[in-house]
Fold:
Amino acid sequence: MKTLRARIEPSTMALAAIVLGTIVVGILAYAVIANIRTDARLANNTRLDLQTMLVLVVDEETGVRGFAATGSRLFLDPYRAANRRFPPTLASLNVSAQNPNLTSIQDDLEGLRSSHALWEADVATPIVNGTTPADSDKRLKDGKVLMDRVRSHINEARDEVEAVANRLSLEVQQAIIVSILAIVLMTIALGIVAVRFEHARLREEQRLREQVDERNAALERSNQSLREFAYVASHDLQEPLRTIASFTELLQKRYGGRLDADADEFIGFVVDGAKRMQQLIDDVLEYSRVSTHGKPLAPVDLEAVARRSVANLRASIEERGAEVTVGSLPHVMGDEIQLGQLLQNLVGNALKYNRSARPRVDVTARREGRDWRIAVSDNGIGIAPEYHERIFRIFSRLHTRGEYGGTGIGLAICKRIVDRHGGRMTVDSEEGKGASFAFSLAGTEETTWQSPAT
Ligand code: ADP
Structure:
């Protein structure tokens, strides 16, 4: 059978791989898009530089032409300004042309540079310096041819750059679309794996729940047969034991004093042992009856039950001169007979394990969340904390039979009754400082939300 780990691990790995893949694709897409964007920005700047270059060339040419036509040096100002800006603009274009996307404009830039240099040397400089007649038609005609060449290089380069810019912006769009598609696909894959993962988890949970239910049922069956065994065994043992006890008593009565002293003593031991065994078997029977003979839980007036239990103990209360108070107790869900037995055991112990001149026992209740906590507190001999757990075990006693009578079953029965009611039993005590035994019980519908009747 596959374990949860074996089922979940591949899904977890798939999830991790997809998440990692999405992150990697995201980073790659971001890097690619950022890269293309930088190139596109460079192409745009180059386009602007070429535009500027065109303006500069026109300014230069019209400046020289104006001067040639009028002889006014005023026309040379725009020529000079443009002429000064020409080299840095060309240098900037040359740098841009190093970009792998723009190498195709290098030839045009070279053509532009050489035609312009020629115009500068053969046309502009001689005219501006006056070394040749300003209105020399031939020179101006040559100049126009050269400047047309310069302009056509600029325009070709611009077309080239424009094509590159368009291509790059298309690439950016494609890269964005591809990344979005990839991320959408990854998200869908993530969703599918997450759903499968969740299904596997739910299936596994269901399987575990079924396993737990199965085991609980098996445990309950085995507990039930153990309880039945304890009950049947102790019940069936009673009969032969009764025979032994009555015949040994008969033996004692008839032959006591007629055999020797040893025989009398031995018969005494047998009678005593048989009686103790009877008592123990009765106790085991009572203990196992808690679960085999319990009644279904129903609303119970706990205060009335407690008062009845106290009334049953009237003889020992009077004998000890004790004061027993029953506070306001709520209606709870329980088995009335068992709750009576529980309270009677606790109040009985409170009177028994008490050496004060005026024993006092209080039965009280207080709210604890949706439950009630019932306490039986006394001013008796108390119990050292190290024994707090042990006293609830079957046949566990802290005193000899000489000190206090009993078989050590009372508190084990109390705990079993409280367990059967779904509650929790505790003791709060210190040696010599009295004891307080408490247990929780569920209230009835009404008392869960109201205070106990006063
Ligand atoms: P039993 O009374 O037959 O000995 P229990 O199961 O009722 O058996 O009690 C177990 C032990 O717990 C007792 O032997 C006693 O030492 C201790 N005990 C029970 N109730 C009290 C109490 N109210 N005060 C002090 N000790 C107690």
